[in-house]
Structure of Cold-shock protein:
Amino acid sequence: MYYSRRRLMVDLPEEMTTIWSCANKKCNGWMRDNFVFLIQPICGQCNSFMEKSERMLPILANTSPNQTKH
């Protein structure tokens, strides 16, 4: 079966998005704030604390019914 690696020709709309970035300088882990289930998340790659920041990302809706943070 053939899978093409061509990129989409359509530019996806982007917006400033709140993210959590890993505080460990050797790790490049990050996640969108609307996909986090903890008030203060921990990096899934290195288990370090994470810091809140912003990044220009394509718009992505989280439709999960379980979006409350503990």
Q: What stands out?
A: Residues 35 and 64 are 9 Å apart (CA to CA). The chain has no helices and three strands.
